[in-house]
Design a protein that fits this description.
The protein has one domain: 5'-nuclease (Rossmann fold). It is built from 6 helices and 4 strands, in the order βααβααβααβ. The chain has helices at residues 8-11, 21-27, 42-55, 61-77, 86-98, 103-121; strands at 3-6, 35-39, 80-82, 128-130. The protein has a 4-stranded parallel sheet with strand order 3-2-1-4. The termini are far apart.
């Protein structure tokens, strides 16, 4: 059973048609038996991404509301939410000091590192951290 961690840039592709959406959606096929975790801050990031796409005219207000409802349902029933504890923030601060990361990117990376350490400690397959960066 593969373990995936999504940040908002990857997760939003499940809800909005854009480059990479088909690949992301395939990971959510129940036959794949994938475990999907997200940092709790991803909830705010996805809400922001959907609101921005509404302002830009990519999706309608109605579509945004439907997508947010689907996302909230998935958060409640399908995703493993990782709480952003002090230890994750401390690690994020360290990572941000060493690498050119934005604040939430540092928290996302620190969350992925923490989840991966837990998986490895229990002899489970390592985490696959899924992000999409377009510059």
């Amino acid at each position: 059973m593969p373990f995936y961690q999504f940040d908002a840039s990857g997760l939003v592709k499940r809800y909005v048609d854009e480059t990479g959406s088909n690949w992301v959606r395939a990971l959510f096929d129940p036959s794949q038996d994938n475990v999907i975790s997200i940092a709790d801050i991803t909830r705010a990031e996805v809400a922001s991404a959907l609101a921005r796409r509404t302002r830009e005219g990519v999706i309608t207000l109605n579509e945004r509301d439907e997508l947010m409802q689907a996302f909230q349902t998935h958060c409640a029933t399908g995703y493993r939410l990782v709480l952003t504890e002090h230890s994750i923030i401390d690690l994020a601060v360290d990572l941000i000091q060493r690498y050119p990361l934005r604040a939430y990117d540092g928290v996302q990376l620190a969350t992925a590192i923490t989840v991966n350490q837990s998986l490895v400690a229990y002899s489970l397959p390592p985490l696959i951290f899924t992000i999409f960066i377009l510059k």
